[in-house]
Specification:
mainly alpha, 10 helices, 55% helix
């Protein structure tokens, strides 16, 4: 509280004025508050724990300390990451290239989901919106590189430009992965076509604002009948 300000004149300044004075918004931030302070402290502690574990070369194999240290080192060793390029993903790309039918596609999507890649859809686990005492698997539409469905179908000049530049960006990424310019362009066009088809089957952005329509509780066997091609 800043008692020098009349609550009748400026209640906001009266109620949080001392906080604003003692905790100015850092130049690097667009907002600041106690939640940010807690977050920064959490980040600081996490970095200290990870750095300390990575320096402990005597940590027993398989212990949490050893695993944390190895994980942190793998992420922070930018020189090795740069040297390896995409080579560590060769096995995953080979698996994708080996897809020949629907069964292979579904199996590969399942594998990617297991790795945390949201291919075609997303499956987070959190509390049931109508029963907070339990956690459930949530199934959401996904597989789009652009922010949402509307980006694929809006006809205004900006949306058209974004789609065009998105394909260019995807081609550039494929080029960095080793495709020549012709192959990168063709593959980028294919990716855009697949994403556009997924977008066409997605619910519109405004429809997703309806929490009742979003809630469709079902058992796994019911889900199997809803989408029989996906085990």
């Amino acid at each position: 509280v800043d008692p020098s300000v009349s609550p009748g004149a400026d209640f906001f300044r009266y109620s949080v004025g001392k906080w604003l004075k003692d905790h100015p918004i850092p130049a690097s931030e667009r907002s600041w508050g106690v939640a940010k302070v807690v977050q920064e402290e959490t980040y600081r502690r996490s970095v200290e724990i990870s750095d300390d574990a990575a320096r402990d070369v005597e940590a027993a194999a398989g212990t949490n300390r050893q695993k944390i240290g190895a994980f942190w080192h793998a992420a922070m060793d930018s020189a090795t990451i740069e040297q390896q390029g995409i080579a560590p993903l060769a096995e995953e790309f080979a698996r994708i290239n080996a897809i020949r039918d629907l069964e292979g596609l579904v199996a590969t999507v399942g594998h990617l989901q297991y790795l945390g890649v949201d291919a075609m859809f997303t499956t987070p686990i959190f509390q049931d919106e109508k029963n907070s005492a339990r956690y459930v698997v949530h199934l959401y539409q996904g597989g789009l590189g652009l922010p949402n469905r509307d980006y694929y179908f809006d006809t205004d000049a900006r949306s058209t430009m974004l789609r065009r530049e998105y394909v260019v960006q995807v081609a550039n990424m494929l080029g960095l992965m080793g495709d020549d310019s012709v192959a990168a362009g063709a593959h980028a066009a294919t990716i855009m076509a697949i994403e556009s088809e997924l977008a066409g089957a997605s619910r519109k952005l405004e429809d997703l604002r309806d929490p009742q329509a979003n809630y469709n509780l079902m058992r796994v066997d019911q889900l199997g009948r809803l989408a029989p091609s996906i085990r």
